[in-house]
Amino acid sequence: MLTLDEYLELLALNHQGWSIAEISRRLGRDRKTVSSYVKGRRVPEKRRTAQDESLRYLSYCRQRLAEDPHLPARCLYTEIVELGYPGAYSTFTRVLRNQGLRPPCPECAGRTHEGEAVASAPSEATVRFDWVELPESPPGWGRADRAHLLVGLLPHSGRWRAALAEGVDLAHLAEAIDQVLRRLGGTPGCWVFDRATAVFSADSAKVAPPFAAVARHYGVRVLAGPPGGGRCAACGAIRATIRRWWSGTVAAGGSVQAAQRTLDQLAACMDTAGRLGSHLCVAGQKVAGNGPLLPLPDKPVPLWVCSTSTVSADGLVRYQGNSYAVPRHLTGARLEVRRRLDRPYISIATAGGAVIACYELAAPARGLTVTNRCDAIMLQRPYSSTPPAVARCKAATRSQRSSDAPAQVGFPPQHEWATTRSSV
């Protein structure tokens, strides 16, 4: 379309006898466009933007997206084109974004999408998880490497709990998280982790897909801590307290369960004293949520936890303060103890994966010797280290257009509109 100045110049040049090709080169316009203006088939006029046309269909789009928040923009564009919308798809999507017509899906709200770490609202309750690497374990624990302890801090109240873990992999992390949350009495809506943990991908701050399934199991969101592993003052005070507890209580001896009991008592005493501050630094911002804790699922996330143990001279395998019988000819062998977190059974297998025996899990730290095998539930099936699929929002299912939607743009109800179209 030519502007008014270009059109006036075109008329003057044509009156002077210029050819259409010469005028086209002078104005930088296509010859067909110049020819249509010279012959009077087109005249300059104000362009009517497609965005102005989109305003007529805002009510229709708002109702359709309220009926189906996951309705693709392409499907919605096809519907309004049938109703008479003349604009392009790019213009329609721009208006859709600028007007903020798409509402949030209630089924997806508060959940963590795979591969994405979402920010936390300042008023949302938050828990900060932090690994504490302790010195070498006491000889009676039967662990060759260092001891690991996961601390969970509620910044809005200063309460914290901790759980001893055999490792820092995903399965042991999920087990320790469940133990910490059950000691706290619930879970906040947002979890904060250090970027150095196994929660996030190695090359970014996005949540790893296996841990995203763990977060969906508890119905929470996951947030990355500050870059560089920075910690708040409250976390530093807890770490110093735990190191003093380790050097003064655990290093002298005792079982894992006894150490866990004394640690719970220490945390409860600090709750009463109220020594910790109520601030938490997250990604350069202070998060001080005071929302209520959410209820926990009845069972932990279905992940397999594996640990190794050496068979004693009596043909026993130590696990969580109890002993489980295996054939005596395996004395001195390193066996693998497997347990799924949501089931009260353990299976003892060789390094090659062959299951030797399966037992019902005894209460921890009872000093029992378990010899009655559960042959009916031998775990011979292959197991997976990732949780099963969790039901998600049915975003791929399209909803039918209601009879009230066409009326938002001045059209008759759907049955009358369909009759009119068929008659045409």
Give a verbal description of the structure.
By secondary structure, the protein is an alpha+beta fold. The chain has four domains: 4-38; 50-106 and 398-423, no CATH class; 126-286, Nucleotidyltransferase, domain 5 (2-Layer Sandwich); 304-377, no CATH class. Helices cover 32% and strands 17% of the residues. The protein contains twelve helices and 14 strands. A five-stranded mixed beta sheet has the order 3-2-1-4-5, sandwiched between helices. A four-stranded antiparallel beta sheet has the order 8-11-12-13. The chain has a three-stranded mixed beta sheet with strand order 9-10-14, with no helix packed on it. A hairpin with a 5-residue loop joins strand 12 (345-349) and strand 13 (355-360). Helix 2 packs across helix 3 (31-38) and helix 10 packs across helix 11. The longest helix is centred in the middle third of the chain and has 18 residues, at 233-250. The radius of gyration is 34 Å and the shape is elongated.
Q: Would you spell out the secondary-structure blueprint of this structure?
A:
Elements: H1 4-15, H2 20-27, H3 31-38, H4 50-54, H5 58-67, H6 73-82, H7 89-99, E1 126-136, E2 146-153, E3 160-165, H8 170-184, E4 190-193, H9 209-218, E5 221-224, H10 233-250, H11 256-273, E6 281-282, E7 285-286, E8 304-310, E9 316-319, E10 322-325, E11 334-340, E12 345-349, E13 355-360, E14 369-370, H12 414-423
Parallel strand pairs: 1-4, 4-5, 10-14
Antiparallel strand pairs: 1-2, 2-3, 6-7, 8-11, 9-10, 11-12, 12-13
